[in-house]
Amino acid sequence: MSLAVPAGTKPAARPQNPNFSSGPCAKRPGFTLAALEGALLGRSHRAKQPKARLNEVITRSRAILGLPEDWRLGIVPASDTGAVEMALWSLLGARPVDVLAHESFSEAWATDVVKQLKLKDARVLAAAYGRLPDVAQVNPAHDVVLAWNGTTSGVRFADAGFIADDREGLVICDATSAAFAMDLPWQKLDVVTWSWQKVLGGEAAHGMLALSPRAVERLLTYKPAWPLPKIFRLTSGGKLTEGIFKGETINTPSMLCVEDAVDGLRWAESVGGLPGLIARSEANLAAVAAFVEARGWVDFLAEDAATRSCTSICLKITAAWFTALDAAAQAEAAKQLAALLEKEGVAFDIGSYRDAPPGLRIWGGATVDTADIAALLPWLDWAYAQVAQSFVQQAAE
After folding, report:
1. Fewer C-beta within 10 Å: the chain N or C terminus?
2. CA distance 375 to 16
3. How would CATH label the architecture of 33-269?
4. What does DSSP assign to residue 129?
5. How buried is 141 (Cβ within 10 angstroms: 0-12 exposed, 13-18 middle, 19+ buried)?
6. What is the separation of C-alpha 18 from the centre of its chain, rounded to a whole number of angstroms?
7. Which residues have a Cβ under 8 Å from the Cβ of 293 and sit 6 or more positions away?
8. What pLDDT, on the 0 to 100 scale, is given for residue 7?
């Protein structure tokens, strides 16, 4: 077995910011802790000024994302996971449901629907990593649960044409690694969730829950057969709990994290709002795509170029020596590659997700400068060559 690339020497340039984790993600360029000096620490989140700061997260998010005026947006507990779970447990059961599962988190939502909620009229439309489910099977009379961008697979929906405008069911969309980096088709969706810790690089704490008028109507006219814990309750006495959508959170938020979220939103406005954020993410994807196109050892996990994510950019190793290895050896080789990059201080936390095929996952969200992506890419060649040489030598012995 021959080695296709020489070991080479270490690249001279290094990324200014080596943080390419897919969550929590890189802080905005130029961030320092001084940005949080205005945090309302030691204050009740129910007091006038802290509540106004919470509402600022809502109003700025609405404006940047172009949320329709008749939608509601609220801050809810437990990051994006909490927001999705709140939607699933509060809204499902009124109709049959189709769950589109094509990576770890959408598979988790399928598990909730089938094994926890135990909905009898549930279908899981699954696809392997790198692909999207067969959307032609989606029934417009059914509720639909999907992840717009596969955080662990690097595969996103290219469009929403498969969702009917006159659908009877609701569409619940996990958009945590899509919001602020992709143009979401609001008219095709009914529930959209995300967290602060993805595209804008915020700190973990709460999630965001956006509801269309159709979703609100479901909340007011349908009562699930199961009990709802307090942190999931969006209604009281048959009425929507409007305070949630004005900064009155269900449980206590971290005002430090709130200040950080506001800082990220203000930065987003400074780079041109949503168009500017999208352009930054797409530039990062384009840089990686040019690199992959010129290499013979690596490719995108996404099989269709139109579905490549511009945030969670997932790569697979395609070299013959690698594909000849068994699954355990492939996982070890990919782990060593990521470890080398971390040891050199040029890329932290870019190994593929634990449930995904072995490879690399480079966060390309808007807080990542394309110059840092460009500086990282030659290091991928260097680290790959070291690992390839080691494994090829082992095979020859």
Report:
1. C
2. 8
3. 3-Layer(aba) Sandwich (3.40)
4. T
5. exposed
6. 19
7. none
8. 58
Q: What are phi and psi of 276, to 5 degrees?
A: -70, -40
Per DSSP, what are the bridge partners of residue 172? 145, 191
Contacts by 325-328 with C-beta closer than 8 Å and gap 24+? 325/391, 327/358
Q: CA torsion angle for 210, 212, 214, 219 (degrees, to 10)?
A: 30
The mean predicted confidence, pLDDT, of the chain is 96
Cα–Cα–Cα angle for 122, 123, 124, rounded to 5 degrees: 125
Nearest to 261 by CA among 325, 208, 328, 306: 208
- Residue whose C-alpha is closest to residue 22's, from 333, 368, 323: 368
> Environment class of residue 11 by beta-carbon count within 10 Å: exposed (0-12), middle (13-18) or buried (19+)?
middle
pLDDT digits (tens, 9 = 90+) for 189-238: 999 999 999 999 999 889 999 999 999 999 999 999 999 999 999 999 99
- Domain limits of the chain? 33-269, 273-396
Burial of 139: CB neighbours in 10 Å, binned 0-12, 13-18, 19+: middle
| Domain 273-396 of CATH type 3.90.1150.10 | yes
**Closest C-alpha to 25, from 153, 176, 184:** 176
Q: Is 355 helix (H, G, I), strand (E, B) or coil?
A: coil
Amino acid at 258: V
Burial class (CB in 10 A: 0-12, 13-18, 19+), 236: exposed
Ordered strands of the 206-211 beta sheet: 72-77, 206-211, 191-195, 171-174, 143-147, 97-101, 122-126
Average pLDDT for 56-60: 98
Q: From CA 172, how far away is CA 258, in angstroms rounded?
A: 25
What pTM did the predictor assign? 0.97
